[in-house]
Design brief:
There is one protein chain. With 147 residues, this protein is α+β, with helices and mostly antiparallel strands. It contains five helices and seven strands; from the N terminus they run βββββαβαβααα. Strands 1-2-3 form a three-stranded antiparallel β-sheet, with no helix packed on it. A two-stranded antiparallel ribbon has the order 4-5. A two-stranded parallel ribbon has the order 6-7. α4 runs antiparallel to α5. It is flat and about 65 Å long. The relative contact order is 0.12. The N terminus is likely disordered.
Length: 147
């Protein structure tokens, strides 16, 4: 949701991977009408379509590491591959900070930083309000022997 805000009206399409009924799929998100065009799975993309559509960049999840030959072929066709690793972040703010990467990628870093600042402030407010210190501790003692 946040990254979609960073794509401006000048951009005609953005190739994305999305969750489909049969797993993850690669598609072209057309901003004009919101449709997706299926171009194959990450492990079996339609290279002809990607080339014919003039794909500038393949933004992949770490699942691409399961198909290194696909990444090699994309790069050999002149399509650079960027692997998005936000899922490797252990801290929620670390995951959120990836919005800056997408801002840089789309030429909208200032807007991404503003979104990050706003969302991280909200996350801190929520974490303080619902911190473990704000809940009573519960202790349970059993006289049953351990087995």
């Amino acid at each position: 949701l946040l990254t979609r805000q960073l794509v401006d009206a000048q951009t005609t399409c953005l190739r994305i991977r999305h969750r489909a009924a049969d797993g993850f799929a690669t598609g072209t998100f057309t901003l004009a009408d919101g449709t997706l065009t299926y171009v194959g799975k990450y492990s079996a993309p339609d290279f002809d379509m990607l080339v014919n559509e003039g794909t500038d960049l393949a933004l992949e999840s770490t699942m691409i590491f399961h198909s290194p030959d696909i990444q090699e072929q994309l790069e050999s066709l002149g399509i650079p591959v960027v692997v998005e690793r936000s899922s490797y972040e252990s801290d929620p703010l670390g995951r959120l900070e990836w919005i800056k990467f997408f801002g840089l990628l789309t030429g909208r870093l200032d807007e991404a930083e503003a979104l990050f600042s706003s969302a991280s402030t909200r996350m801190r407010e929520v974490s303080v309000k619902y911190s473990p210190k704000s809940f009573p501790a519960a202790v349970y003692r059993s006289t049953l022997p351990l087995r």
